[in-house]
Amino acid sequence: MAKKKEQENTQQNPLTGMETGTGAAMNEGAVPDQKGRGKKSRKAEGIATVEVQSGAAASPAKRGRPRKTDTSEPGAAAQEVMVKPTRGRAAQLTSAETAAGQSEPKPKERRTPRSVAQQQAQEVAFSTTPAPAMEQPQQEQTGPVYYDISRLSEFDIYLFREGRHFNLYEKLGSHLMERQGTKGAYFAVWAPNAEQVSVMGDFNSWNRESHQLQARADGSGIWEGFIPDVQAGMLYKYHIRSRYHMYHVEKSDPFALRREKPPQTASVVHELHHTWQDDSWLQQRKAKNGQPQPYSVYELHVGSWRRKPEDNNRPLTYRELAEELPAYVKDLGFTHVEFMPVMFHPFSGSWGYQITGYFAAASLYGSPEDLMCLIDALHREGIGVIMDWVPSHFPSDEHGLAYFDGTHLFEHADPRKGYHPDWNSYIFNYGRNEVRSFLISNALFWLDKYHVDGLRVDAVASMLYLDYSRKHDEWIPNEYGGRENLEAISFLKDFNEAVHTQFPDTLTIAEESTAWPQVTGKVADGGLGFDMKWMMGWMHDTLTYFSKDPIYRRHHQGDITFSIIYAFSERFMLPLSHDEVVHGKGSLIRKMPGDEWQAFANLRALYAYMYAHPGAKLLFMGGEMAQSTEWNHDSSLDWHLLAYGYHAGVQELVRSLNRLYRNEPALYDKGFDPQGFEWIDFNDAHNSVISFLRKGNRAEDQLLVVCNFTPGVHEHYRLGVPTGGNWVEVFNSDDSHFGGSNFHNHGVLQAVPDSFHGHAYSLVLRLPPMAVVYFKYQP
């Protein structure tokens, strides 16, 4: 537990336990006077001080918090070497990481953040040459840390402070390098309110004092240094001694590329190395950018998709998933996989949404390269990858971002803006430019280094509103007296612009549940800039409707038709997500009323209606086989259910719907355009029947969709259609292959010139029980 003293200047919120007051908020995010308190710092006078231990045997490496080194102990003499810096050229350095990266092919079409930064540097006339914190003389260095090299230029610092540095992962954190022929690692961390920052780890027996970093003289609050002989795979943390309250703490590296396996929390010195084999996919992604295309997403939790019961019921590793998941998803016809958060999170019960390592893959399932292997395998099978991204909140774990340097650095100091009551977590300070640089750099990192195709942004609604899930006296209005979080709004716009500038062929998707306007509108037009938004209203109304006994549905026709009123106000994705099958809500099949046959017929009708509705689609794992129980993150899906006919039938239905969705332009050409939808009849509440047309870009690309939401059969059901010609049944959720009663419209149906429903022609159909039928126009 971190040590804190002199807390008389700090008050504690009785509800949240967060510190407020002069002590906690003092100079938040600012770099304090370099003179410090009490004794004048030698570093402030331009003198580099390093300690060299000699005359004592190295103690065995211990994890956790070892006893602080006491240099006055007998047998543990220490020398203090003071070196006066001189001006001159910084020592030449080479990056092992850069050299290794040259051998890895990268897609030519990718516009890297660095090229944009160089262009901006020319505009503001800043140097892009790395500038060290202080330069060492040419004489032999005797200490363990060197301060004469850096990865940060004057322009880097400028962008960082402006909130516009979007590739910080190339600058901060740990990086294997060479200095004058000596291999080691460069470390850099942002801690502006620290009076001392040290690197402790395997290489120094977890000594808190021996390897101290140095604060840059530019006031950026970044501490840096080069430590010789540090190798890949070594564990480390930062020991941070704050300027306030005598607070000191061990922190994981916010920019660490790899982390220990939980429950351990140390960072790992690591370089990313993977030879990508997805050039064909990336070229295809670029070619399709901006064109209408189907989006059918399979949402997945890595730890519970499939498990190894013979091996203590452990989850599959990334590489084991790479052997099974791509073929499975391709066979079912989904276009994308969406992973629930795979960033490092110490508590599995958070499902990944309480992240402490934003740049590190969840180590429970393997290494960063293992995750890259999984993404690569999916791409080679033509499957896109979307990742959940969580910029809305972060946990209070001591090793994480919270109270990072003895102040509320990444979060707001006032709990009315910095604490989230729903998730017992902290809220990022979106008004702090350095935090914006951190978050946007993280988003681009996954698109850049992991070739991710899209980011689904979690809990956007909680970011937009200052009073989200708060009582009237638990929030602070904005500068205009409103409840809109202006800083978060600005951040989301900057995030979307950065993503679409650097990686224009990728997606951003908002989980946003309110009526906030223009979530998917262009930033230039006042929108937030997302590509899609989850249609939470559709999800709620649809599940409410389907949960009712069919005999009562005639009184709730509006529940199933209302979504079309606003279906084209945004670019919507229809989600049947993990949130709907947990916390006592029951699985989807258990929401359906009636006996076994009716329940499965209801579920088949739900899926068929969903795929016919305008918008992209998302289905959580297990839904494709009508999982009987609620989702449990500690258990595998119930794969044995596929041995039973009804469950196998639902899987076959999902496979057929995905195939139809891909092959019928009427279902996606104008999926976000009101011109692609036309009601035939939504007024037959007595029979609980609705009918509509879906239209593509060509006149012949038309589908007539008829939904019968009761178990009654209609032998001669007349519907108006806009044109004469032939119509053919191309899909029927009541097919026996899906577990239905096999009640079909056989052969070709001829539209006759008999006006009905405001159209000059009409068809007479057979409507199967509790089913959805698609008919295709044949001119």
TrEMBL record:
Keyword terms: Carbohydrate metabolism, Glycogen biosynthesis, Glycogen metabolism, Glycosyltransferase, Transferase
Chain residue ranges for the region called Disordered: 1-141
The Glycosyl hydrolase family 13 catalytic domain, residue ranges: 299-655
Protein name: 1,4-alpha-glucan branching enzyme GlgB
Role played: Catalyzes the formation of the alpha-1,6-glucosidic linkages in glycogen by scission of a 1,4-alpha-linked oligosaccharide from growing alpha-1,4-glucan chains and the subsequent attachment of the oligosaccharide to the alpha-1,6 position.
GO molecular function: 1,4-alpha-glucan branching enzyme activity; cation binding; hydrolase activity, hydrolyzing O-glycosyl compounds
SMART domains named among the record's database cross-references: Aamy (SM00642)
